[in-house]
TrEMBL record:
Entry GO MF terms: ubiquitin protein ligase activity; zinc ion binding
Region (Disordered): 381-409
Keyword tags: ANK repeat, Metal-binding, Repeat, Transferase, Ubl conjugation pathway, Zinc, Zinc-finger
Annotated organism of origin: Musa acuminata subsp. malaccensis (Wild banana)
Protein's name according to its UniProt entry: RING-type E3 ubiquitin transferase
Pathway: Protein modification; protein ubiquitination
UniProt superkingdom: Eukaryota
Enzyme class: transferase
EC number(s) reported in the record: 2.3.2.27
ANK repeat start-end pairs: 46-78, 79-111, 113-145, 158-190, 195-227
Cross-referenced InterPro entries: Ankyrin_rpt, Ankyrin_rpt-contain_sf, RING_XB3-like, Znf_RING, Znf_RING/FYVE/PHD
Catalytic activity: S-ubiquitinyl-[E2 ubiquitin-conjugating enzyme]-L-cysteine + [acceptor protein]-L-lysine = [E2 ubiquitin-conjugating enzyme]-L-cysteine + N(6)-ubiquitinyl-[acceptor protein]-L-lysine
Domain RING-type: 322-371
């Protein structure tokens, strides 16, 4: 992959490339003063330049020295790979960032599989490099000319997107980053893996439970088939991944899905988003435990819930309990009407009506208390900090009137199913039977 040195055209060139590989800044500087043309030379076979060697080996100081001498950051090796691609392959985040800051082109494709630097970062599981490249894509000409969503979902020569590669290589952190940036969870491959495979098919083939969890939580379709008509469930069974097959079983309860189609969800601050994501994974984890263990007990473990959501609550705390479930502390607040709920109930509000994939624009969900449209969510701590110098307090509802709206009553049932096994049908008996057979 270019991390080593092939033959050089002379011993002098070899000494220079060896110094670059070792990060010997003084020797590199001395060699360039004696012969500046060394910057234009490459190794014989792999056609590696000094910039490639420095990037692949994480020698950021040498890399900076070379770039300061007006060397193009997009020089190509024998496989038409740029220094940025090699740095992403080997997880050299400092070199990746330096090359991006120097204007390296993120839209170049190599000649091996037609992959970009984003493909390489996802394939090798370097999440920090993946974040840096995605961040650069938002701020460079890519977002305006090529389109950020198109870049995230770019296919290589075999029809695989970065998400396909991350799922197949069991890289759950990279899967999470990609789907969070708009990667399509139902995209099909061309020749990569088995034709027509989705990321869920590839995660099932590799037996990665963590990747399957991430994909299901982001709306991956368990019923989608590849070119041979196989569902991810059947792929997992064939590969003898019993636990993966149990989660992918079409007869099992549907997982709770992150409502990414709603505009205000994408505008959440990091703290509020983290609370809601934790609630989502908690609900799906309870569902998963019931499926895998084959239990029919519908009660949530108090200790498990307390650990996840009530760590900061004590007897002396004046925190308000959620007026929907009466079980957890309010952590999320609707900014406009200032009504508060726990994270799980907030997520149930957002997922109460599943997004229609054929609809481009969806109305925001309504507050279950006053029926006003939810345009923004904040954490209660953030709101309390801003209001600590005021005398008035936001309205908090401890009890629900029996005369509430029908939608509120419907929400209560939705929250009930969310707390027990996620947001879906209750066909756990069938799935547990299937687990026993596996």
């Amino acid at each position: 992959m270019g991390q080593g040195l092939s033959c050089a055209s002379s011993s002098y060139d070899h000494d220079f490339f060896t110094a670059v590989q070792a990060g010997d800044l003084q020797a590199v500087d001395s060699s360039l003063k004696d012969d500046p043309s060394l910057l234009l030379r490459t190794t014989i076979y792999d056609r590696l330049s000094a910039l490639h060697i420095a990037a692949a080996n994480g020698r950021v100081e040498v890399l900076s020295m070379i770039l300061d001498r007006s060397v193009s950051p997009d020089v190509l090796n024998r496989d038409k790979q740029t220094p940025l691609m090699l740095a992403a392959m080997h997880g050299k985040i400092e070199c990746v960032q330096k090359l991006l800051d120097s204007g390296a082109n993120i839209l170049m494709f190599d000649s091996v599989n037609g992959r970009t630097c984003l493909h390489h970062a996802a394939y090798y599981g370097h999440s920090d490099c993946l974040r840096a490249i995605l961040s650069a894509a938002k701020s460079t000409h890519v977002a305006s000319s090529w389109g950020f969503a198109r870049f995230v979902n770019v296919s290589d020569g075999t029809g695989a997107t970065p998400l396909h590669l991350a799922a197949r290589q069991k890289r759950p952190s990279c899967v999470h980053i990609l789907v969070d940036n708009g990667a399509l969870v139902c995209a099909s491959t061309g020749r990569y893996g088995f034709p027509g495979s989705t990321p869920l098919h590839l995660a099932a083939r590799g037996g990665s439970l963590d990747c399957i969890r991430e994909l299901l939580a982001r709306g991956a379709d368990r019923l989608q088939r590849d070119s041979s008509g196989r569902m991810p469930y059947e792929v997992a069974l064939k590969q003898n991944h019993g636990e993966c097959a149990a989660l992918l079983n079409p007869s099992a309860a549907d997982p709770l899905v992150w409502p990414s189609a709603l505009k205000f969800i994408s505008e959440l601050d990091s703290e509020t988003k983290a609370l809601l994501e934790a609630a989502l994974m908690e609900g799906n984890r309870e569902r998963e435990m019931k499926i895998l263990k084959g239990t029919t007990d519908s009660l949530t473990s108090p200790a498990h819930s307390d650990k996840a959501f009530d760590d900061d609550v004590s007897e002396g705390s004046d925190a308000e309990f959620c007026s929907i479930c009466f079980d957890r502390v309010c952590t999320i607040e609707v900014q406009d009407c200032r009504h508060q709920m726990c994270a799980q109930c907030t997520l149930a509000v957002c997922c109460h009506s599943k997004p229609n994939p054929t609809t481009l624009f969806l109305p925001s969900p309504a507050c279950p208390f006053c029926r006003s449209s939810i345009s923004r969510l904040v954490t209660t701590k953030a709101r309390d900090t801003g209001d600590q110098n005021t005398t008035s307090k936001p309205r908090r509802f401890r009890h629900c009137s029996s005369e509430g709206s029908s939608s509120f009553k419907g929400l209560s049932s939705a929250v009930g199913s969310f707390g027990l096994m996620g947001c879906g049908s209750g066909r756990i008996t069938d799935s547990s039977d299937m687990v026993d057979k596996l």
